Structures are given as C-alpha cells and as structure tokens.
Amino acid sequence: xxxxxxxxxxxxxxxxxxxxxxxxxxxxxxxxxxxxxxxxxxxxxxxxxxxxxxxxxxxxxxxxxxxxxxxxxxxxxxxxxxxxxxxxxxxxxxxxxxxxxxxxxxxxxxxxxxxxxxxxxxxxxxxxxxxxxxxxxxxxxxxxxxxxxxxxxxxxxxxxxxxxxxxxxxxxxxxxxxxxxxxxxxxxxxx
Length: 191
Hints:
7 helices
C-alpha cells in the first residue's frame, strides 16, 4: 500500500491578518516556520521517510517543505490553493459566513474558481503523482482549501472539517488506485 502525506503549509502573515489567500502569497511567520520544523521532527521521531516530495508553487508551501525536509522536491501548479479571484488579499470577513456548499460557486462571480474545479485539479495531480511505480511514500505540501476540496473528492469532509485544518496538519492517505483517508494528524493535538 502506498502512502501520501498531504500537509498544509505553516502559518503566514495573511493568516494572522485574516486575509483571503489563494493564489496570492505571503511569507511564513516565525510561528509558521516553527510549525514546519515541528512537523519535520514529527516525521523523524516516527521514522517516516519519503521517496518523493512535491509542493504547491506558492512560496509559503515551498518554504514549509524546505523546513520539513532537505530532500529535493518538485513544484506543481496542480497543488495550488483555490483561486478566489478579485477577493484575493481581501479581508476574510467577506467570506466568513459561507458554508462549504456556498463556496462551490461563490467565487465565480469574482473571477475565481469553483470548488469542484479545485477538487478535480487536486484529484488529478495527486493521482498522477501516486501512480508512479517508485512513489511509495510521498510528501506533498499544499493549502487548507485545496486539502479540503481534495478530501471532498475522497469522502464527506465535514467530520474532519469540524476538527479543523490548522497550519501544518497532515492528512495521511493510503493509495491503492484510489485514495482512502487513514488519519489527520493535527499539530498541538497529535504532535
């Protein structure tokens, strides 16, 4: 059985400022850097090694991955966050009352993506990655919305969403041609 470790990036400046952050980017905070280092230590302590690593092209994900491991990695646009259109960089107060169902098409009116587009992009990208014969244990660093929409393609995500998708949480998937969520490892609770 192959294993995918899909991880959210560390805390960023826009996370702290409560700004909508999709394809726009902001740097990791000091806390975000420490979260990434702590995630790397979790993998070491649990003797988890990777044969391949991938990151969203966003700087916040690349920086997180580089703090988790010093192995080479590939940047992929397919792992990018949901695109929020004209709401990129705006206050989260503009979307804080939306339900996941509302988000499916809400951002289209602002030139953004539908949640289904993000889901399908993540499903294709991660399936393509895991179908390589030499990919047995893979780390991929992405974003909360992208991780949520990927989980939506695998199972009902609401139970896990209620528990939160904090910075540097790790979604562990088994892959046998299809993805199966094994567990979600949350910083501050599980490590």
